[in-house]
Amino acid sequence: MSIIERGRSVITIYSETEAFDSHRIRFLLATKSINCKIISVDRNDPPEDLLANNPELEIPTLVDRDMHLYGVNVITEYLDERYPHPPLMPPDPMTRARLRFTVYRLENGWFQYVNKIENAVGEAKVAAVKALAAELTAAESLFSENPYFMNSDMTLVDTNLVPFLWRLEHYGMDWESLPKSLRNYAHRMFQSKGFKKSITEAEREYRFDF
């Protein structure tokens, strides 16, 4: 991405090339066509300026002038408000609250499997993949009722969810066994210009049909 943005200071994003949380931010940046500087971080050799303001090395991290932010939801909402076009959250408070609650439930539900699967081996990994597949299958209607996930327009829920779905086959899940409504939604989102732009070369290897 270009690091020149007319009329504003340029934000910096510290990101990991294969991390789920970093991909969520990169997809949001690409969806909104936000020009910024993205710095790929090796946790074994992190930049000194990042450690100085983020000793726990929480990644992704956003730097805007003298402000340092981390926490995926904090960063996504800040970016959506700072760069309001296209808006990814609706104007009315009740719908915004509903969508925030949806992200909260994803964080405490399906997204919990990311670390479980990535850190598991053998039968433990197989069991985690099987449990997640069962939960996704039970949620079939959530993918079929609206063009986007539980909403008629694209929102921050989608920018959080789609990078997760991209990783399922990589985790060992039988993609064709998942609900057709989920696969149709995912394929449509995978084909979007913003999502294609958000994928790193390493992440492209997660699937072979794109």
Please give a structural write-up.
By secondary structure, the chain is α+β, with helices and mostly antiparallel strands. It has a domain at 93-192: Glutathione S-transferase Yfyf (Class Pi), Chain A, domain 2, CATH 1.20.1050.10. Helix content is 50%, strand content 8%. It has 11 helices and 4 strands. It has a 4-stranded mixed sheet, covered by helices on one side. Helix 1 packs parallel to helix 3. The radius of gyration is 17 Å and the shape is globular. Mean pLDDT is 93; it is low at 1-7.
Largest sheet: 4 strands, mixed
Query: How many strand units?
Result: 4
Q: Output the CATH topology of the domain at 93-192.
A: Glutathione S-transferase Yfyf (Class Pi), Chain A, domain 2
* Rg (C-alpha, Å): 17 Å
Please bin the fraction of helical residues. 40-55%
**The first-level CATH class name of the domain at 93-192:** Mainly Alpha
Shape: globular
The overall average pLDDT, rounded, is: 93
Unreliable runs: 1-7
Biggest sheet, spatial arrangement of strands: 2-1-3-4
Q: What is the distance, rounded to the nearest whole angstrom, between the alpha carbons of the first and last residues?
A: 21 Å
Report the CATH architecture of the domain at 93-192.
Up-down Bundle
Helix-strand category = alpha+beta
In N-to-C order, the SSE pattern is EHEHEEHHHHHHHHH
Proportion of residues in β-strands? 5-15%
Count of alpha/pi helices: 11
Q: Descriptors for this entry?
A:
GST_C; Glutathione_S-Trfase_N; Glutathione S-transferase Yfyf (Class Pi), Chain A, domain 2; alpha+beta; RNA polymerase-associated protein; globular; 50% helix; 11 helices; 4-stranded mixed sheet; Glutathione-S-Trfase_C_sf
